[in-house]
């Protein structure tokens, strides 16, 4: 299916949007909370019911032990978002100081995401958090750049306010350059608009010179629940946010498919996944992932 990475210039609801997309998917789905500044799902939606013994940080040591160890660790550190286990989350870091340990792990994780999407039929949503820059470029260790490089789509999450647009404007050129030089191409870059503010989609697109690929409504009750600060709405699945997220996923899937068809340099033959990484799919099929 698709690998979608969400980023922001500042806290703009990236994690909430990522959760909405993951929970609304009609297909198996995974949210990978990969913000180097630390994750919020553990303390938020799960209300600290997941210990520090589960999550992203532990994959660094596993990766150093080899691909098979990484595949086993990846499956065992997922947590269910629903009873069926079709929607899962990889909880993020508990301490930003853990981020440097993952620098050499990001490329291997990017490959795992690709396997889940291409061979497992998963919708993979990566919460890459707030972008960090260094000398006008993507910071090599404070942003999980390899995950952006391998994504089908990279969405800059912005609110429909002048303040949000002003902050995001400084991020578009570094992202454009990064995806052109190291990713799948600058046309992977677009906007996920949170409709919280007076600006319309065409105004946001014109201001940032990027297409608005999807939009989500501002629905405080559902957003508060996903952030862990409010109760679940009585009709969560029918909430405007999750309904719009389902539509957004359809649009994003179509956009990713169009990109695939128009790739200038498609491989003559698909590159087979390493057998060890393909084992991730087998382990997930056997019910991998803890119950949230």
Describe the 3D structure.
The protein is globular, with a radius of gyration of 18 Å. The protein has helices at 14-24, 58-64, 67-76, 106-118, 145-150, 162-181, 201-208, 220-227, 240-261, 275-285; strands at residues 3-8, 29-33, 79-80, 87-90, 123-130, 133-134, 137-138, 153-159, 189-195, 212-217. It is 40% helix and 17% strand. It has one domain: Rossmann fold (3-Layer(aba) Sandwich). With 292 residues, the protein is α/β, with parallel strands linked by helices. The mean pLDDT is 91. The strands form two sheets. The protein has an eight-stranded mixed β-sheet with strand order 3-4-2-5-1-8-9-10, sandwiched between helices. A two-stranded antiparallel ribbon has the order 6-7. The protein has ten helices and ten strands.
Helix/strand layout:
Blueprint: E1 3-8, H1 14-24, E2 29-33, H2 58-64, H3 67-76, E3 79-80, E4 87-90, H4 106-118, E5 123-130, E6 133-134, E7 137-138, H5 145-150, E8 153-159, H6 162-181, E9 189-195, H7 201-208, E10 212-217, H8 220-227, H9 240-261, H10 275-285
Parallel strand pairs: 1-5, 1-8, 2-4, 2-5, 8-9, 9-10
Antiparallel strand pairs: 3-4, 6-7
The largest sheet has its strands arranged as 3-4-2-5-1-8-9-10
Q: Write down how many β-strands occur, each being a DSSP E stretch of 2 or more residues.
A: 10
Give the second-level CATH assignment, the architecture. Answer: 3-Layer(aba) Sandwich
- Alpha carbon gyration radius: 18 Å
Q: How many distinct folded domains?
A: 1
The helix/strand series, from N terminus to C terminus, equals EHEHHEEHEEEHEHEHEHHH
The biggest beta sheet reads: 8 strands, mixed
Number of helices: 10
- Please identify which CATH superfamily we are dealing with: P-loop containing nucleotide triphosphate hydrolases
**Looking at CATH, which topology would you report?**
Rossmann fold
Q: Indicate the overall shape.
A: globular
Amino-to-carboxy terminus distance: 24 Å
What portion of residues is helical? Answer: 25-40%
**What would CATH call the class?**
Alpha Beta
The computed structural class is: alpha/beta
